[in-house]
Write a structure and sequence with these properties.
By secondary structure, this protein is of the alpha+beta class. It has helices at 39-48, 51-72; strands at 2-4, 10-19, 26-35. It has two helices and three strands, in the order βββαα.
């Protein structure tokens, strides 16, 4: 999935879903790459942006949304 932000950067996400070791859960692997073409924004991103924290927050939000949708989904056969 490619994206272009209104905040001056662009990039892509690549995700892979697989079945967990327990045979029931789903494991997600996400890879993000981003390019910041403007030199000043690139320097500011290095100084003020914590990519590990950002990634962790995104994964928590994704987990919470999956749980919400699972709880709201009708049970089927």
């Amino acid at each position: 999935l490619a994206f272009e932000s209104t905040r001056g950067y662009q990039g892509r996400w690549r995700g892979q879903l697989s079945t967990g070791a327990d045979g029931v859960s789903t494991v997600i692997r996400v890879e993000e790459s981003a390019t910041v073409p403007m030199p000043l924004l690139r320097v500011m991103a290095r100084l003020f942006f914590d990519s590990e924290e950002f990634a962790a927050e995104c994964l928590v939000r994704l987990r919470d949304e999956v749980r919400r949708r699972s709880a709201a989904a009708p049970e089927g056969p």
